[in-house]
Structures are given as structure tokens and as C-alpha cells.
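### Sample
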Amino acid sequence: MSTYDPAALECLAAIVEEGGFERAAQRLNVTQSAVSQRLRALEAQVGSVLIVRSRPLRPTSAGQLLLKHTKQLRLLRADLERDLQELAPSAPGGSREDERISIAINADSIATWAMGALHDLVRERLPLEIIVDDQDFTQEWLRSGQVLGCVTTLKQALRGCRMVPLGAMHYVAVASAEFASRQLPQGLTPHNFREVSFLSFNRKDDMAAEFVARAFGLKRVALHHLFVPSTEAQMRAVDAGWAVGVVPELLVRGRLADGSFVDLAPGCSLPIQLYWHCWNLESELLDALTAALTSTAADTLVQP
């Protein structure tokens, strides 16, 4: 089996993660010519093109395999670093910027429970990179080898990965008290939901439509959307009376209690089951990530 130059592998990863040769060179502190040379040498060794020179750049199938291998090597080095720190606590950490441990998490989990789960690991100087995507699509980052784990709504584990149920996050439809009084004095009904706007992250986000369909027993619904690509910004948008927000109940519990937000469909909620997927490798770091996320989720999310 071929042995691949770690510097060339990290060069490939930097090109993909930074989205170009120039930024990869800046991150690796080498010239852009050196980045190109390392990539060409790696492609020659593999016998295949590894990067599609498109906009944005993307790895080929062979490039994805090597990218996953590179991140697995990072994980091994991070495990070694943790073990060495335990043997010699006063020794300086050896983690580098280009050896980040990447995981994909949906924005609502980050805004509610996931940051607390990761707190202790980050305090231990874990070189963490959190990639944000819709919970229905985070598994694609794991599939492509760009992250070592993800929080997703998909239950089926990928080949070579393991899956742990986390629990359900319940979503409710809310509006500011002023918006609700002015536009929805009777709350949401099957007859008025088309008269107001709903907040969504982007065009992939179908949470609001799924909530309305479930609440009123409809197969398909068409809503008027305002796209606001941030959980925190959506909260501000609801507060400002822009639209109806279908948001985690965890996030608005206090606002509902003080009356500044109104539950527009009392008794209706949309449970979204979440799962943690990660590579099926023997790794203390992966075990620690899994334990941290599942423990916090058990205390925060609704369990079956």
C-alpha cells in the first residue's frame, strides 16, 4: 500500500477547506506554487485528479477518500496529543491550525444545547471546527469525509460509521405579542396561515411547512417565506414582528413565560429526532465527543 506524504495530504485538505489555492497557501504558510506542486505530486502518486477546478473547488471521488484519510490522521494525532498531555501536563500543546477536528451540527442545536456539550473539550484545547448546515443535510459532510461526526435527523448509519440517538427537539410556532394581536388574534388556523410570512433559514429549510402540515393534517402546504440564515437572527426577527417563527421550544421557553412571545398553536409541536453519527474508529477523542454530546442531549432533549 502506498504511503502518502502528510504534507501533501494536508495541502489537499487545505485547498478543499479554504476553497482555493491562495488561501490554502496562506494557511500552510507556503507559496501558492508550493501548494500546486504538492497537489500535482499527490495526484501523480494516486494516478487520478483529486480536485475539480470549478467554482467552488470540490474534491473528486478519489480526493474525498484522501480527504477522509487525512482527517483520520488528524484524529490519531489529536488522540496522541491528549495522551501526551496526560503524561506531561506542563508540556505545551502541539495541535496546529491545519489539524482542526471538524464536526457538522445544525444551527438550532448550536443555539440551544450543543455548545454546552462541547465546552469542556474546548477548554482542553481541542482544535474544533463546527460546520453549520440544515439537520437534514449535515450527514452529507460526513459522507464526503469532510467531518468526523455530525448531528442529523437521518437514522441510518453510513458504512464505516456508528450512530447514537440523541433525543427529540420540539418546535413550536411563535410570534411577538404585538404581531399575534394584530395579525393572528385567533392564533394559527387552517384558514389564515397563508396570510402571514414564516421565517426559514434558506430554501432547503422546510421546517415551517412541515409544522403547518402536521398541525392541520395537510399533505402539502405553500407558505410565504422570509429567509433569515441564523437562529439568533430569527429570534430577533420574531421579536421585531417580521413573521412567524417555527423555532425550538427550548429557545423560546422564557419568552413564552414572560408573555413577549405567543404560542400560535397551543398544544401543537413538531418533534425532530436527532442522531449523532461518527466514524467507527477506536479513538479516545471520538469517544469523548460522543459522550459529551449524548450526555448533554439526554439532559436537554426529549427522550423516547
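The longest helix spans residues 61-87. This sample (HTH-type transcriptional regulator ArgP) is used throughout the tutorial notebook.
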